Amino acid sequence: MAITERPPMALPSGEGERDFQPLGVFRRPTAHTGWRSWITTIDHKKIGIMYGVAALVFFLVGGFEALLIRTQLARPDGTLLSADAYNQVFTMHGITMIFLVVMPMANAFANYLLPLQIGARDVAFPRLNAFGLWCFLAGGIFLNTSWLFGGGADGGWFAYAPNTGVAFSPGHGMDFYALGLLITGIASTTGAINLTVTIINMRAPGMTLMRMPVFTWMTFVVQLLLVFALPVITVALFLLMFQRLFDANFFDVSAGADPLLWEHLFWIFGHPEVYILILPAFGIVSEVIPVFSRKPIFGYPFMVFSGIAIGFMGWGVWAHHMFASGIGPLSVTAFSLSTMFIAVPTGVKILNWMATMYGGRLRFTTAMLFAIALVGMFTIGGLSGVTHAVAPSDTQQTDTYYIVAHFHYVLFGGAIMGLFAGMYFWWPKVFGHQLSEGLGKWHFWLNLIGFNLTFGPMHILGLQGMSRRIYTYEEGYGFDFWNLVATIGAFTIAVSMLVFIANIAISKRRAADAAPVGPDPWDARSLEWMVSSPPPEHNFDELPVVTRLDEYWHRKYAEGDDHKVRRVASAEDVMDPGERTDVHLPSPSYWPFVVALGLPLVGYGLIFSLWWAVLGGLAVAGGIYGWAFEPADDDENPPHDHHDDDHGDDDSGAAAELPTDTADGDDEAEPIEGEQAAEEAPVG
Amino acid sequence: MADATTETGAGEDQPGMGVAHAVGEAVHAEVGGEHHTSTGLSNEKLGMWVFLGSDCLLFGGLISTYLLYRHRSIGGPGPTDVFDIPFTSVSSFVLLMSSLTMVLALSALLRGDIRRNRIWLLTTALLGATFIAGQVFEFTAFKREGLGYTTNLFSSSFYTLTGFHGVHVTLGILMLLSLFVMSLRGNLPRERAETVEIIGLYWHFVDIVWIIIFTVVYLIP
Amino acid sequence: MSVTTEQESHAEEAAAEVERLEHEHPRDFLYVQIAVILAVLTAAEVATYNQDVSDALGDFQIPSLLLLMCIKFALVIMFFMHLRFDHRLFSWIFVGGLVLAVGVYIATLLTFQYWT
Fold first, then answer.
1. Backbone angles phi, psi at A548, to 5 degrees
2. Which of A24, A50, A213, B180 falls 20 to 30 Å from B19 in CA-CA distance?
3. Which of A254, A545, A579, A580 to mutate to test the interface with B (most CBs of B within 10 A)?
4. Taking 70 as the threshold, does the pLDDT of residue C114 lie above it?
């Protein structure tokens, strides 16, 4: 057995000897600063920030598309957009907001916070995590290049076939749709597997499942939903792609196909998808409200189980999107009943949030305002949702603006507002300075008022009979007034977004002069507040031992003999110092970036010329091999946290590397002088 | 090919671990595998099972599409016109046996029998390749009989379903061959048995999907 | 802890894990037995292709084919994929996906009145 002469391959944990250069083509990246460090990073925190930046940029894109829609519809017989252009704009608006804004923004929070909240150093598969980011970015950009190649997707975000077949959607738009969503779907699937394993397997000692923060729990449910729902739309998209590119017959009615097949496959994904969109916001709000009510979340087990219930029940209601599609009275009845039931666990959450606030000492910070707004706005959206569950009334409502009102109330009033709450809440943790509360309040009120002005009237318009997806309407239908109001509301939202962007910029500038934010500016409850702001690269010096729910809170406060809760330690006392320099971390890698870059090439190839697909395929295959044979850790140049090089918050790691906004989310970091530049000198 | 995780505390956190045990919480501190995890299970293996669970939804969708469409074609050959059950039975048998050789490969490696492991890995890959060759032969025969990809509903859904399965098998063959080459270079010792186990899980899954396809597509009239 | 001591303890842990795996895995002979059973079941399935056999089975042909399929499926899952002897979490995850798939797709086919 010749094996005994050679030392064994490095153990997967990375320790062990290695006497060969994997592939020997490129050196292992070593950068810890500069743009290369962002491209090759596998640090969940940097990845989270990049997801967030990209999502915000796409939010502006989708918002611009929304303004185009509202401008077109402000007056009857609008002339800004032709019917064809309008179809593209509203389709891309929906796709962008759902797949390129809400999902990645939620992922930004999940990526950044999850390891911190469960007391881990990173996620289970750091390189896979990086791949997910680049893959998402590749898919999102690919999808939007459709505008340059003849027009955006134009079949609605739900892409009903055969309308989206070549006969009725002859341009390339729907090809970009199918391929773009397949690419972003890969990103979400790998991310979901990653976070599922992370939550199950990488919790700190003592962190049982029922001691995890509610945000972690909701994220867990979301990842399981993603893992099981994404394959279904993958099938649908492949069928559509094969139909369009290779003349398959799946949705060709003249060949005997059934259009309902698309609808079923799409909505079996599509309904769990809406819970994927809202549960992270629910999780965020479940963190924010207790902190600013100075009370623990009311009914923690119920919050957890209702989230799980929503996850389960969400699989049984999909055909309520198809009540008017001719599925027959038996199916309609069954799905109508199941849909009514799913309101229950959500109602439990609403009540628990309100009960948390009741009797609490409320602090109306901007984060809290957005969180309370979610509770209110989502309730409104949920109530209109209940009216949809009643199939006969839905038959009148469906395909009208009443539905548009419903889903914007739950998605904007719910998900987006929840995400804003999260941004204001966790901004100091991530960036080391707070967003301005004054500007934040302006942002909030303009946003809330604008939002209600935009979507409130749509309930009325819908019931008055205004159809969805029409590029204009004539005078004399009585739609004029409320459409104008809605447009004014939309521009109010736009102003609020300008305020938000100004807030980001101004707060960053002010941070240079302000006192450094400590670990725990809000006096919060979960483990991420136990580390410095921003956290060191290795997260914790010592992984915390968890003995109860809200472990961090209970290290600061204790109940005395008189049953009064008293402060027993300051945040600084309890804080994990974050000073260790010998923590073994996995090495950066560029392979995830390479593999992700190959995927859109395959996409372009399938649409235009197969040679690109071959090239892309080679990049993907080569990248995967490079990745597989690259050890997780580089022993010749073991990475360790460069935290000791940071001095104060002027050039503390993340703040100094804060990327300037570029259109595609690729970040140029400002170069750091002095010691860190010396650190970058290549090791021999 | 395992994607390692960061240290979660086994190496550095002796004091922390000690306290955890003293506190006596229900931490599954079974120190099996290369790194400590909350359940004692390997991250990579858990990840593969999650992936396989999701793949059920993928193949379920393709199978349902096939079931819906197979008798709804307008014109063109149908299943009974083209299927050669004896031939496909042999293919199915080949794939089933490849599952046996796969598990024998793992068993050999666990015993430390690197050579046997290598032989069984190669055999599994070859059996898989035989299966694919059989598929290719079968499809070209169908094509000659007038069943192209775009011929009718049955053909599109049949080729898509079996095509997806075939791609899964091919990727599996590539992984097995990679393991074989690694073993030749001495990079697949007993300590890396888990890698073989995880790729084995993928391979067996591909086999059980075929078990379903063979019955549902070919045998059930 | 020094790097070498860490290495040693990791090597020990890995060796212990391999020991544990080896003792838990059934012997090769069992695998061959299972393979033989699978082959026999497959032969039985294929036998239904024969006209006489399928006539004899009548209405029971499809259920018996499905039953044979399920048995083969279960054998490979439980023994070759080791699910029977592994941590229950793996079973929960995989069976969860499987049940979800079967449920959702059967419901879909039902709405197509597939079986009427």
1. -165, 175
2. A213
3. A545
4. no
Chain B (122-141) residues lying within 8 Å, Cβ to Cβ, of chain A:
none
- The structure tokens 């929304």 sit at A66
CB burial of residue A273 (10 Å; 0-12, 13-18, 19+) = buried
CB B219 within 8 A of CB C45: yes
Burial of A147 (0-12, 13-18, 19+ CB in 10 A): middle
Reply yes or no on whether the pLDDT at A307 is more than 50: yes
Of A258, A260, A268, the CB nearest to C104: A268
Contact check, Cβ <8 Å, C14/A11: yes
Please give the residue of chain C at the shortest CA–CA distance from B91. Answer: C42
Which residues have CB under 8 Å from C65's CB, separation 6+?
Answer: B215, B219, B220, C45, C48
Chain A positions in Cβ-Cβ contact with residue B51 (cut-off 8 Å): 193
Contacting chains of B (3 CB pairs or more, <8 Å) are: A, C
Q: Give the C window 35-94 contacts with B, CB below 8 Å.
A: 35, 38-39, 42, 45-46, 48-49, 54, 61-62, 65-66, 68-69, 72-73, 76-77, 79-82, 87, 89-90, 93-94
Sign of CA dihedral A64, A67, A71, A77: positive
Identify the DSSP state of A21. -
In order along its 221 residues, chain B shows pLDDT tens digits of: 444 444 343 433 444 444 333 333 333 333 333 468 899 999 999 999 999 999 999 999 999 999 999 989 998 999 999 999 999 999 999 999 999 999 999 999 999 999 999 999 999 999 999 999 999 999 999 999 999 999 999 999 999 999 999 999 999 999 999 999 999 999 999 999 999 999 999 999 999 999 999 999 998 87
Asked if the Cβ–Cβ distance from C104 to A15 is below 8 Å, we say: no
What is the per-residue burial (b if ≥16 Cβ within 10 Å, else e) of A423-453? bbbbbbbbbbbbbbbebbebbbbbbbebbbb
Smallest CA–CA distance from A544 into chain B, residue:
B16
More confident residue, C113 or C22: C113
In chain A, the residue whose alpha carbon lies closest to the alpha carbon of B58 is A231
pLDDT tens digits, A77-135: 999 999 999 999 999 999 999 999 999 999 999 999 999 999 999 999 999 999 999 99
8 Å CB contact of C7 and A15? yes
Q: Is A78 helix (H, G, I), strand (E, B) or coil?
A: coil
Query: Which pTM does this prediction carry?
Result: 0.88
pLDDT of residue B5: 40
CB pair distance less than 8 Å for B46 and A197: yes
Please tell me chain B's helix, strand, coil percentages from 3-state DSSP, rounded to the nearest 5: 75, 0, 25
Domain regions of chain B by residue span: 1-41, 43-219
- In the predicted structure, residue A12 carries a pLDDT above the cut 50: no
Is the backbone peptide bond immediately before A577 cis, with ω within 30 degrees of 0?
no
Question: In this predicted model, which residue has the larger pLDDT, B142 or A586?
Answer: B142
Query: Looking at the complex, does the CB of residue B39 fall below 8 Å from at least one CB of chain A?
Result: yes
Amino acid at A489: G
CATH of region A40-511: 1.20.210.10
The torsion angles phi and psi of A317, rounded to 5 degrees, stand at -125, 5
Task: Tell me the pLDDT of chain A averaged across its residues.
Answer: 89
Among 1.20.1250.20, 1.10.260.40, 1.20.120.80, 3.90.380.10, name the CATH number for the domain at B43-219.
Answer: 1.20.120.80
Closest-CA distance of chain A to residue B99, Å: 24
Between C112 and A427, the higher pLDDT residue: A427
- Report the candidate in C52, C46, C53, C91 with the shortest Cα–Cα distance to residue C69: C46
Amino acid at A626: G
A623 closest CA partner among A644, A601, A639, A656: A601
